[in-house]
Design a protein that fits this description.
Butyryl-CoA Dehydrogenase, subunit A, domain 3, two-stranded antiparallel sheet, binds flavin-adenine dinucleotide
Length: 189
């Protein structure tokens, strides 16, 4: 096995792995032969729900941080958080994170009941990644220049939460899944 580390923009240990001529003993087989891909996909529903939860945590973190900051930052004699132009994007982010959280729990409930949960797991991941990214944008915007300063920690979370538009499944492929498997449209690739 060859391991090639990939340095990247987020705090995530990432490596490219190459397996050459690897033989796996029969007794190590999981489940039934020929069903492997289905097992992998089933496992991915848990991963998507988990990542949704991670994004939701990020989303609450951003909303919490920025809500406090705009209450403390005073410009022209009043906190910037008194302006509705500042309040509304933050309030909108909070609503979207809460909505994503409901879909996350729906996916968890189905998964725990051993019911199919592909749609809910994908939709939870989609909503949560989008909500956390919107919250990240509001958070960095309303920290002004300090949003870019390491000491506030916002720029780090901003970079980290951007990942979830791409991995572990890109937003586009979730839309494709919903279009094809839930709405019955023809497969595009
Ligand atoms: C930090 C990090 C950690 C990772 N960790 C893991 C891991 O632990 N395990 C693992 O298996 N993978 C991991 N990945 C890989 C990750 O899952 C993939 O990068 C991701 O699924 C996107 O696949 P790709 O890079 O092959 O993009 P590509 O398939 O090359 O697609 C590129 C972009 O084009 C668009 N696109 C592609 N196909 C279509 C289409 N049919 N319709 C519309 N748009 C499309 C999407 O926007 C996509 O983001 C990780 C990636 C990163 C960045």
């Amino acid at each position: 096995m060859t391991v090639r580390p990939i340095r990247n923009m987020v705090n995530h240990e990432t490596n490219e792995l190459f397996f050459e001529n690897l033989e796996i003993p029969t007794e190590n087989m999981i489940g039934q032969e020929g069903q492997g891909f289905k097992y992998i996909l089933d496992g991915l529903n848990a991963e998507r729900t988990l990542i949704a939860a991670e994004c939701i945590g990020d989303g609450y973190w951003f909303v919490d941080r920025v809500s406090k900051y705009v209450g403390e930052r005073v410009v022209f004699g009043r906190p910037i958080g008194q302006n509705q132009g500042v309040q509304f994007p933050i309030a909108e982010s909070y609503i979207e994170v809460e909505a994503a959280n409901l879909m996350r729990w729906q996916a968890c409930t189905l998964f725990d009941a051993h019911q199919p949960c592909g749609a809910e797991a994908n939709m939870a991941k989609y909503l949560a990644a989008k909500a956390s990214w919107e919250a990240a944008n509001a958070c960095i915007q309303f920290h002004g220049g300090f949003g870019f300063a390491h000491e506030y920690d916002v720029e780090r979370k901003f970079r980290e939460t951007r990942l979830y538009q791409v991995a572990p499944i890109s937003t586009n492929l979730i839309l494709s899944y919903i279009a094809e498997h839930i709405l019955g449209m023809p497969r595009s690739f």
